Amino acid sequence: MATLLVHFKTQKIIFLLAIALSALFNFTFFSKLYTFALAEHNYIVALSAPFVLILLYIFAANVLLLFTHRLSFRIGVALLVFISALSSYFMDSFGTIIDKDMLINVLQTDSYEALSLITPKLILYSVLASVCAYWILFKVRIHFRAYTVEMVQKALVALVCFVLIGGVYMSVSKSYSSFFRNHKEMKMYLNPFFPIASFSKLLYAKLKPKPSFQAIATDAKRLSGEKKKLVVFIVGETARAKNFALGGYEAQTNPLLSKREDIVYLQNFSSCGTATAISLPCMFSKFERKAWDSDKEQYENLVDVLMKTGVRIIWRDNNSGKDKNIAKRINDVVHYQGKAFDEALLQDFQTTLAQNYEDTFVVLHQEGSHGPTYFQRYPEKFKTFTPTCDTQDLEKCSQEEIINTYNNTLVYTDYIIHQTLTLLKANEEQYETTLIYVSDHGESLGENGIYLHGLPYMIAPNEQKHVPALFYFSDKEKEKALHVKRKEPFSHDYLFHTIVSLFNIKTSEYKPSLDLLR
C-alpha cells in the first residue's frame, strides 16, 4: 500500500477527494435532488447530477487549493475532509443547513447547550474525520512538483472543469435551469462548500467595521395614568403553534389555559427567524423581519425606549443562550442559564415587584422546549404523555416518543403561563396588567426528516416559523379589541409597537399599523 501511495500526485488526490466528498458527505443533497427530480420526471438532472457534482468539486478544490503547496496543500485537503464529515453529521441527522445564521448560533452556544448535542454518532463522525485528516497530513505520500508548475496545473484543471460544466449545462440547460430555479435551496446542501461560503460571510461580517451605536425614539414621552401599568412578556423558547391545544391540536398540551376564557390566542402568528440568535433581537427591535440583519443590533431596542421614558425593567432569563445582549443595559437582570426549571423565573416576582410602585415591564425568557434534550425541560410530574425520549440522541427514539416528550414541555409551559397569570391577578388592584406570551421560533420534530430548528427562513418549514402567541388584559376593552382579530396574520413585527402603545409612549418610531390593538 505504501508503495502505491508514493505515486500519488496532487491531481489524483483532488480527484479522490472529489469522489469522497460526493459519495460520502452529500447524502442529504442527493436525497433531496432525487426526490425532486424523480417526482418531476426530470431524468436528465437525475442521471447527470453525480457527474456534474464531481466536476464541480474538482473545480472548487483546485480553486481553493490553488496557492497551496506541500504542507499547506495537505492541511487544506485535511480541513475539507474534516469540515465535510462534521457538516454531514448535522445535515444528515437533523436536516440542518450550515448557513451564516446557523454559525452565529454555534458561536453563541454555551457549554451546557453544546453538551446536549453530543451523541455517540457525533463522536464517531469526529473520530473518523480526525483519522482521515491525520492520514492525509502524515501518512499519504504525495509527489509535489515545483510550486509554479503545481499552481499552473491546478488553474488549467479548474479551467477544463469549468468548460465541461458549462458544456453540460448548455446542452441540457432547459432541464437544469427549471430545476434549480424551482429548487434554489439545493445549493445550501452542497457540503462542504456551502458551509465554507457561509463561514466566509460570517468572517466578513465580524471583521467589517461595525456601525456606530444608534439611539432611537429620542422624542419619546410617556403619558402616565392614575393606575400604573404592569406588562409581563414571557418569551417562549422553541414552542411551535402546531402542538398548542389552544390552536386546535388534538392532544391536550394546554390543560390549564384551555379552561380560561380571559386570554386571546392568536392563531396565525409568525416568527422573525428560526433561531434565538435572530428572533430574539429582532422581536425587541423596531425593525421588521424583512429589514432585519445583524447591523440592526447596533440600534437601541424596545427596553431602551421603555427605560428612557421611566418604565422600570425587570429581566429574568433561564435561556441557555442568555439574552443575546438585549438586556445588557438593564440593571435588574438575573440569569439562570437553563440550569433550573422555568419556575425559577417566578420565584422573586412578588418581592421584586413590591419594591417600587411604578410602570413596570417584566421579561421572563424561558428555556421552554429547547431540544434535543426535551426531557430535561420539565419536572417529572409534568410527564403527561408517554412513552418519552429520555436521551439527546434522537435517532434512538421513535417519532412518537420525540413528540410526546416535546408535548410535555408545552404542558409545563402552560403551567408557567397559568402561574404568571395568577400572580398578575393578585396585583390588579394596584396595576392595569397585561400578559404577553410569544415563542421566539418553532421546531421540527421529524417532518420530512428534519429536526430541531435554524433552517434559512426562505426554506424553513412552517413548524419552525408558526409560533404560539397569547395575550391577557385586565382591561377588557383591549381584550375585546384583540379577540376580533384572533384569526388574522400577525408576527413579531407587531411586538415593539404594541408594547410601546401599552405604556402610552408617544414617539415618531411608533407605527399604528403594527399595533395589535389598533
Automatic annotation (TrEMBL):
One of its GO terms (biological process) is lipopolysaccharide core region biosynthetic process. The chain crosses the membrane at residues 12-31, 43-66, 73-91, 122-140, 152-172. GO terms for cellular component: plasma membrane. Residues 60-205 form the Phosphoethanolamine transferase N-terminal domain. It is found in: Cell inner membrane. Gene3D superfamilies: Alkaline Phosphatase, subunit A. One of its GO terms (molecular function) is phosphotransferase activity, phosphate group as acceptor. It is a multi-pass membrane protein. Keywords: Cell inner membrane, Cell membrane, Hydrolase, Membrane, Transferase, Transmembrane, Transmembrane helix. Residues 230-505 form the Sulfatase N-terminal domain. Its main location: membrane. Pfam families: EptA_B_N, Sulfatase. This is Putative membrane-associated, metal-dependent hydrolase.
